[in-house]
Amino acid sequence: MSDAQSDARAQILGGIRRSLRRGEISGEARQTVEARLAAPPRGPSVARAQLAQPAKVDLFCQWAETLNATVARVGAAEVPGEVTAYLMRSNLPANVAMAPSPLLEGYDWPSQKMLSIRRGRGEGSDQVSITGAFAGIAETGTLVMASGPDHPVSLNLLPDTHVVVLRESDIVGGYEEVWVRLRARYGKNLMPRTVNTITGPSRTGDIEQAMELGAHGPRRMHILVVRD
Amino acid sequence: MESTAHAFKANVDHALADPNLQNSLAMLKVGFSERRRQAAERLPEFEALRDRARDIKNHTLAHLDFYLEEFERKVTGLGGHVHWAPTAADARRIIAELCQSVNARTVAKSKSMVAEEIALNEHLEALGIAPIETDLGEYIIQLRKEPPSHIIAPAVHLTKDQVADTFLEHHARLGFDKRLTERGDLVAEARYVLRQKFLDADVGLTGANFLVAETGSSMLVTNEGNADLSNTLPKMHIVLASIEKVIPTLEDAAVLLRVLARSATGQESSAYTTLNTGPKKPEDLDGPEQYHVVLLDNGRSAVLGTEMQDILRCIRCGACMNHCPVYGAVGGHAYGWVYPGPMGAVLTPQLVGVEEASNLPNASTFCGRCESVCPVRIPLPKLMRHWREREFEKHLTPRAVRQGLAMWSFVARRPALYRRLTAMANRVLALFGRADGRYQSLPLASGWTRFRDFPAPQPGGTFHARWAKRKA
């Protein structure tokens, strides 16, 4: 940090402390805030998502559809076939960009002779992407995407159509359970570069407050909810 | 952005006479507020969440230095950089230097009110760096060279036809020479034009709704996905955020997110809520190589510990302006600077000076709707009243108003005189008739009646007289 930068830092932090009429937080007060960081208290819980797992899955599907996604509930063996069928009935191209993820590789894609699959990050010309999801949030029908070598962020954003494969067992009640899973997977205080939580297709209300889908991200989102 | 808050009254005259603006505002009044009401009703825990949101922000503000240092430590540990900017000029210089360090020619910008606050676009343009607004509303007003008129719906003052004209004017040279009439076609054309700009941009600049101290993450809430493209495709991601955006943990974010979208647009959830934490990791297939966070103070630390501190809880949802009868009548541009509506009437005098912006806290009927819908329960009318008091103390109030108030307080402190005078006024006013219960014009009072009706006295005398009769 340059001298000018450390001066600027001291100026802001010093200004805050002067306004709050105290010095740097220390002693017991510091222990209290550190404890709050170490064991974050939760806010009021939202009753509508406190459900048994099957009802959570139903709630997720309801909200996702309400918020303009489409949902297909399938068994694991039906995943590749449902993707092809969805693309056909929606008149979409059979060229897809797929996340190079072990979860997705577990499905029998070679069975779909019509599908042409490219694995890698998203490109500006991609029409359709297929990715997994780290979790689904029942409370609002929201998908949680964690970036990494198995899930490039660009696949969530660039294509016109985003097909998402989500396992029923990855559907949780609210954000708080997602945080628990993220900490378990990546370590406490650690995160993948990007966590996208996505609720339905991209939209805008910037012209006369009327909602239009497909502002910058996908216009269509199709979610395959896979039975365990 | 240059403030014209001092010209509020002239701005208002202009706004009231603009038919396109009045049409747009008529839509706003029913749209956002009705959707917010429905969203709040769908969530029984909404009021408890608002209490909690207020408490989280208060806790953070009381320990702001601690959480900022914690945030910085986490970002640095992940290979990101934190830059401290005491003033707007510092933030402009830091961002310009970062852009120049990668020889940036274009910057893909995602809507940021703080960037408006520091007039970033003008500064970058002067250095030969082109900022490209990618939020649809911001893009429209950038083409029209207008400031935003609403903090979450920057082009809410425009009609579809105005947008169509703007696109035709600016997109014709790109081959789009047909005037569009459908909203969906306008959105699609902007998507196409901006997509290439995303792919070409050297730097992505976004604001932040929250900064999470626990993880060193910046959190962004959008519906379009433009912020996400801005922070994924270019090789450098710069986050510009003011210091009060920091919150302690992800659990706190969960509470704030639940009240933010519902208060802002009445949505259950915005389409995209994104946490960015540091630069691209070696094994990642995409993402920026550099991640910078610029923390702007610009007068905020001086607000802590004062009677105005509550405004620092603001999460910029826009509910206060959506429910404000004054905003609903005059729109956002009349306020003359970046932040309009009730939150702007409190924040603008703080950031540009009460001398410049003294009209804004007066542009309120104190009806209290803003406070009743604020997700973090900021007592906006009370804070506007504080500004009015300071304005009075600083002798910024016009002489006629001061003399009028002095006369009023003389009379009001003398009950017998007060009763005699009001009874007399009542009889005099009655001479002008009381047909409709109000006067559209009165001699000597045109300053009032030119803009609004004056209530006519009702039969039976003053309230005091009627009360006395009733008790007797």
How is this structure best described in words?
The complex is a heterodimer of chains A (228) and B (472). By secondary structure, chain A is of the alpha/beta class. Chain A folds into two domains: 3-38, no CATH class; 47-226, Rossmann fold. Helices cover 32% and strands 22% of the residues of chain A. Chain A contains seven helices and twelve strands. In chain A, the strands form three sheets. Chain A has a six-stranded parallel β-sheet, sandwiched between helices. The termini of chain A are far apart. With 472 residues, chain B is an alpha/beta fold. The longest helix of chain B is centred in the N-terminal third of the chain and has 24 residues, at 19-42. Chain B has 22 helices and twelve strands. Chain B folds into two domains: 20-296, NagB/RpiA/CoA transferase-like (Rossmann fold, 3-Layer(aba) Sandwich), CATH 3.40.50; 399-471, no CATH class. The radius of gyration of chain B is 25 Å and the shape is globular. In chain B, helix 3 packs across helix 12, helix 9 (160-171) packs across helix 10 and helix 15 packs parallel to helix 18 (380-393). In chain B, a hairpin with a 4-residue loop joins strand 5 (210-212) and strand 6. The chains are: A alpha/beta (228), B alpha/beta (472). Chains A and B meet through helix 1, helix 2, helix 6, helix 7 and strand 9 of A and helix 2, helix 3, helix 4, strand 1 and helix 8 of B.
